[in-house]
Amino acid sequence: MALRPRWTAAAALVLASVPAGCGGEGSGSPPVAAGIPPTPSPAPAPTATPTPASTDDPLFAGASIGETIVGPLVCSDGRVTTGAQGEVVGIGPITQIRNTDTIRITYVGPDSYRTAIDGLASLAFTPDTKRVPPSPIYARYSAPSAGELLLGQYSLGFVTFGTFTAPDLCFFAGGLPPGVLNRQTVDYFGIVDGLGVVGGVQSRFFNATYGEARMIFDFPTATGLFSFDLVQRSDPFGDFRASPPVKLGTVSANVVLAPGQESFFVPLSGAGFTGTARGRFVHDGGSILGPNIGGAGVALVYELRSPAGDLIYGSVAFAANLI
């Protein structure tokens, strides 16, 4: 199997899309953040351009063999049900969500990955653990002894997203070593994935081209804001993209980076939910076009609850084209 090509300017931030079933583009604008100095109005967020799904390894945040992506991880305590090959097919009642962990995934070689979470032993996923994915947006690796790793098949270049189950079902986003850009205002667009229980019904919350996910960050003042739509879909452990999307509303948050920091933990609210979001800025300092040129990302996870007892948790992979 051929190795993936390195990221190039010509391919910058084109989404490797999948078969239809998403619906039309969303609309709307990001929230207004109090206390952020005025900046020129940014250009509209880039529009996702469908292209055939990759048939090679997942496009893994620009990582080469031997490199490790790092990112936040959010998990629930629901007991998962697995199939004969270790693949997740369901989950029991969820009472708690943990938004404190960090995941490290090393690209060992073609179809080979090694995962490690704070304080836990590492797990290996090899070519013989590659399985048929539940949805074409993911590549799936699973085994009864190792759990399950789903890696997003969208070509974001400098950030990735997915799920990791061993044994808790967790969502993550990640990228190469974190960094804050030496630039002015950067406009990011994102892909959202998550799981929720709303009205007693388990649903997937996936948003790529139906709805909006956007972050605007002003690096000189270290302040910004982000928002994303909550798009509900049925069949949460199957091909959920084929189900009709239902937009519940929009959540948003302001972000302020402390001096010298690349990570943040902020309150998140909207659509009748409140919760938290935790993220880190990432970029490829070794871009072929030089530092701070080419592409960048923000890896983010979130958890939300409503007064009625509904809950949602998941990840957002934000990407920006800096050319």
UniProtKB/TrEMBL annotation:
Residues 24-61 are annotated as: Disordered. Residues 1-22 form the signal peptide. Residues 37-49 have a biased composition (Pro residues). The keyword Signal applies. Keywords: Signal. This is Transferrin-binding protein B C-lobe/N-lobe beta barrel domain-containing protein. The lineage of its organism: Bacteria, Pseudomonadati, Pseudomonadota, Alphaproteobacteria, Sphingomonadales.
